[in-house]
TrEMBL record:
It comes from Psophocarpus tetragonolobus (Winged bean). This is Phosphatidate cytidylyltransferase. The keyword ATP-binding does not apply. GO terms for biological process: CDP-diacylglycerol biosynthetic process. PROSITE patterns: CDS. Its cofactor is Mg(2+). It is found in: Membrane.
């Protein structure tokens, strides 16, 4: 009977859903079983992993520093490149080789939607900067103005073309897979472009509002790694088995201190604080914003008696930096926890292997996504002053005045303008 059963099994056709060899970024079985007890302090390979991460981090630091030195446009280009890598990693996450072989052109549809979304998002963000860049040339000004005017129409019909393409590409027995990929593509576009849109907006408000929050996330990540490396004993969350309370608290304190001091350092470079109003690559010069002008705070009598200086210089932006440091150390890590849960749902260790010791670009940008949105909202709400037009001010004043008072106000304003002309 055993021989007959063996023959029947060997002669039966193989199913397409065969068990594949575990990929390098899948979670090892021994780690997944431990779930919350696999601490970094107990890892026998932790020193080798630390040096790999250190070399990769140094390489990234040097590269990013050079790009930041080059200016706004190069930083924006870097964001676009990272965006493409992230989209590629996420597109490949749910791909199935068997289905893709039978749908050879379906992959291009994902990238069609991606570049359509890129044109829409960046067209809206950079419209004013484009106009300001070419104001000296009438032909270019008209061309860019028309491009901006019809940008939404162009993007809409590009999307409709992709939609029609998707409908025409539907194949029997692959409907579920194709509609799943269609929904997955749109979710990726929302996640990737929400983060990048706010990041680019922060860049044009001033490089400071890009580099400072990004540095806080990096500092918090490094702090959590080293505090967990040497002192981690208490698991923090089961989604990330190597995260510990010791690492989380130690990194939070270190991030708050670093935020206050690092903001003072960065705030003294004018080319980092000036907003960019066009797409030129020249170095910026502008009137220093009041939040980057030092205020001198006298030291208490006891401290001034023992210290050589009587007062300290503090930039107002340092008080804002404390709030950003608090968010970077308490809330932003939950972006990483979300990504960890997502990876566990798909039984993978990392989204990719582009960065040795760190995983893929998506693994590095999980907390940055949350931070970029917060910084933009915080900057617009608590840092940027409210701009009031003349018409808005006059309307507010006129609401509280009677007809005779309004006439008297107009008469007085007319006399003032006439005197200035003379």
């Amino acid at each position: 009977m055993r021989d007959i059963q063996t023959d029947s099994n060997s002669s039966s056709p193989k199913t397409p859903n065969v068990r594949l060899r575990r990929r390098s970024n899948e979670i090892p079985a021994e780690i997944s079983k431990l779930n919350g007890n696999y601490l970094l302090v107990n890892d026998k390979y932790k020193y080798k992993s630390m040096w790999i991460r250190a070399y990769s981090s140094l390489w990234m630091l040097v590269s990013v520093s050079l790009i930041i030195y080059l200016g706004h446009l190069y930083i924006w280009a870097m964001v676009v490149v990272i965006q493409i890598f992230m989209a590629s990693e996420l597109f490949n996450l749910l791909r199935r080789a068997n289905q893709d072989k039978r749908l050879p052109k379906f992959k291009f549809l994902n990238w069609h939607f991606f570049f359509t979304a890129m044109l829409f998002v960046y067209g809206r963000i950079l419209s004013q900067q484009l106009v300001n860049t070419v104001t000296s040339d009438k032909f270019l000004y008209r061309f860019v103005s028309n491009l901006i005017k019809y940008q939404m129409v162009i993007c809409y019909f590009l999307y409709i073309a992709g939609f029609v393409w998707f409908i025409l590409s539907l194949k029997k027995r692959y409907y579920k897979y194709q509609f799943g990929q269609y929904a997955w593509t749109h979710m990726i576009l929302i996640v990737v472009f929400t983060q990048s849109a706010f990041t680019v907006a922060n860049i044009f408000e001033g490089i400071f509002w890009f580099i400072f929050p990004a540095s806080l996330i990096a500092m918090n990540d490094v702090g959590a790694y080293f505090f967990g490396f040497y002192f981690g004993r208490t698991p923090l969350i089961k989604l990330s088995p190597k995260k510990t309370w010791e690492g989380f608290i130690g990194a939070s304190v270190a991030t708050m201190i670093a935020a206050f001091t690092f903001a003072n350092f960065l705030g003294r470079f004018q080319w980092l604080t000036c907003p960019r109003k066009d797409l030129s690559t020249s170095w910026l010069q502008c009137d220093t914003d009041p939040i980057f002008k030092p205020e001198y705070i006298p030291l208490p009598g006891l401290l001034s008696h023992w210290l050589p200086w009587k007062e300290i210089a503090v930039l107002p932006v340092q008080w804002h930096a404390l709030w950003m440091g608090l968010f970077a150390s308490i809330i932003a890590p939950f972006g990483g926890f979300f990504a960890s849960g997502f990876k566990r749902a798909f039984k993978i260790k990392d989204f990719g292997d582009s960065i040795p010791g760190h995983g893929g670009f998506t693994d590095r940008m999980d907390c940055q996504m949350v931070m970029a949105v917060f910084v933009y909202i915080y900057h617009q709400s608590f840092v940027v002053g409210q701009d009031y037009s003349v018409e808005m001010l006059l309307n507010q004043i006129m609401r509280n005045l009677g007809s005779e008072e309004q006439l008297a106000l107009y008469t007085k304003l007319g006399k003032i303008l006439q005197e200035r002309r003379l």
